[in-house]
Amino acid sequence: MKFCVDTNEKNSWYIGTNDYGSKMINKFETVMFQGNGYMGMRAVAEEKQLHEQRDMFISGTFDAFPNEVTELPNLPDLINLEIKVDGQPLCLKDGYVENYHKSLNLKNGELTRTFDWIINNKAVHFNYRRFISMYDKHLFVSQVEVSSAQDELNVQLSSGIDGRQSNDESQHLMEGDKRLYDGQYIQMQAETQQSHIDFVFNVRHKIYVDEVLLSDKPYINMSRRQIFGNYNVDLQAGQTLTFIKYANVYTSIDQDADPNKLTDDSVAALKRASLSNYNESLQKSDRVWNHNIWQKNYVQIDSEDEKPQVAINFARYQLAANTPLDPRMNIGAKGITGEGYKGHTFWDTEIFMLPYYTFTMPDVAKNLLTYRYLGLQGAHKKAQGNNYQGAQFPWEAADPTDGETAPLWGSADIVTGKPMKIWSGFIEQHVTSDIVIAIMDYLHATGDQVFADDMGYEIILDAAKFWSSRLEYNEEQDVYEINDVIGPDEYKEHADNNAFTNYTAQWCIQKAIKVYNLIKEENPELYLKLSNKLNLETTYESWINQVNRIYVPQPNIEGVIPEDDQYLSLKNVDVSKFQVNDQISTIFKTYNLSQINQMQITKQADVLLLIYLFENMFDDNIKQSNWNYYEPRTTHDSSLSQSIHSILASDLGLNDEAYKFYEMSCETDLGIHIGKAIRGLHMAACGGLWNMTVEGFGGVRIDNGKLRIEPHLPASWNSLKYQINWQGSTVRVGIDGEKMFVQVIGDGIEFVSYGREYQVPANGSLEIELPVEETVTD
Prior knowledge:
Blueprint: E1 6-8, E2 11-17, H1 25-31, E3 34-35, E4 39-41, E5 56-58, E6 82-85, E7 88-89, E8 96-105, E9 110-119, E10 122-132, E11 139-147, E12 153-162, E13 173-181, E14 185-192, E15 198-209, E16 212-213, E17 219-223, E18 226-235, E19 240-251, H2 262-273, H3 278-294, E20 299-303, H4 307-322, H5 348-360, H6 362-374, H7 376-385, E21 409-412, E22 419-421, H8 424-427, H9 431-446, H10 449-470, E23 472-474, E24 479-481, H11 499-522, H12 524-534, H13 536-546, H14 593-596, H15 607-613, H16 620-630, H17 641-651, H18 655-670, H19 683-697, E25 700-703, E26 706-709, E27 717-726, E28 729-736, E29 739-745, E30 749-753, E31 756-760, E32 765-769
Parallel strand pairs: 26-30
Antiparallel strand pairs: 1-2, 2-8, 3-4, 4-5, 6-7, 6-12, 8-9, 9-10, 10-11, 11-19, 12-18, 13-14, 14-15, 15-16, 15-19, 17-18, 20-27, 21-22, 23-24, 25-26, 27-28, 28-29, 29-32, 30-31
Helix pairs in contact: 4-19, 5-6, 5-9, 5-19, 6-9, 6-10, 9-10, 9-11, 10-11, 10-13, 11-12, 11-13, 15-17, 17-18, 17-19, 18-19
């Protein structure tokens, strides 16, 4: 594996670089992102640099312009710190730079940057540190130390709140009041233009020379959308100037804030926070990282090099840093790491990220599924707008009540030169099934009956109601079809009877029938409530009439399941030259989407995703036949593709292929190519890394509601240890050579492994001899 960052074989929580050039500046800004789920900042330098992207976002604060879809607004810059040494502005393109190093500690999210700047024959040392607090979600703290061993220095500093930020030159915020509290606390207020969310930003500075606190009352400079504090300090040779910046952000939609008292309460909060020095504030945040995140899950990989462990640490850090704990919000496809996809939530959460949370932090998984329950209003709105019934969940979701937020137009067509219409928001409908899949996995893994009764069952029934209304009756064949859709393979628009869509729609209705009968028999009160709300009596009759007549494509004589009615008759094309792992869709330099639509070219796992999610429906020969057919026709242009292929390859004994796709996924964001990461991380790839490690190589799967553990370790791994949560108990698994160790903390569990059932008693453990695995030659 080749990473864009340096790693350390003795510290798998470290990623760093000695490169401060402009070529990779946006990539490093993304990869070294800092966040706590509420607030997120890209890893830009404190001083402004050419080609940088100074993004800061607060989860859930969506805003829109007329005729545009809603997006997370890029907020005022709090990182800024301009420094002059003897009147010379700090700029790494001037003078000489030595000993440059920038690194991110993945264990606690602290970003550091150090270098020596030689200017006007003076060597000045800079040491920057900063973090976003996990202890106080509103708080950001940074520190810089400036010193010169041999020379006297005059240091001027300017730091504050810079509201001149935009989303691709569009400004979402209307500027409000600016003021100074107590001669020390700088404040700026703002409001989004369409959604009318109020923001309050506060900053306080502290300045020390050799640990002696100087007067921290700044000279204030106010201008349009800006308020800065300015300081002037003379240093003797050998002295160290320490400049600490405390900043916080509050909004009128915060759960923990009174929207009528934001200005005063937020300043009071910053006063309390600034009583602690930098190290004390960092330690408070460290403890939350350790207790709330790392103690609830671990993955330990003993391999030939450190990169697999670094990759899984990176993935888990980014998931924590980008996942809000407010159930009104969800994980964007690029989290809050950049402007890509406008902060919108896709099916990425349910299929690629929720397994991690369901198995390790089920309380977070419940929040993410609650978001979908809160989105039923928007799902009804979308269904009604399309003349359907029930809950048709949006392809792209923002505020859960909004419904569909997908844009209408994309980039230019290589052939026509005109913008390409984005059909996903109209006809990529499998997201409704994906949500039900995630709910069922959550219920199996947790046994959370309260969630089922309060929210889960209603979502399942409402989703099935949509699918029932979406089915199209083919009188000639006496079957129900689903025509004109996009399946997971987004290179096939307007497909008829996409296999993934049809299978999962039928499965949703089957689950709804079971839920209907269950609650009718066991919970009459809930049945009456949901029956009146969803008109279940009439709907149930439709389900019974339709469910066994839904057309689901069957394997042909070669064992291949048609991706849709047209796919197998399309033109064959060699796609190997397009299978390049740089996250750039090079195929569009040769063909437009209309042409690709007429070729056997697949973007990502589609039929293979169906086989992965519903493995019990298909025997090994069918699985192998479909792998042999579809993988060579797949470009893997989507970052969602590699993890599914890796896990399925593990299941099939294709160990070399499994590891090849694993390495590709590790390089999605950490790789040496610039790719699409400059617009934000690929959060589904982060979830996919955990899935490949624990579900693929570690062998964890939910099999007909039961836990199954059948590991397939890569040849280069000596051992793997991980922790999951199963129905309220902590389960620790270790795979070492031909042995597997299972330890349970809590109630006893049952699981299946290679056809045998095992029981582990409460607070007990078990050692199992693993069968010798037969490797298929790739």
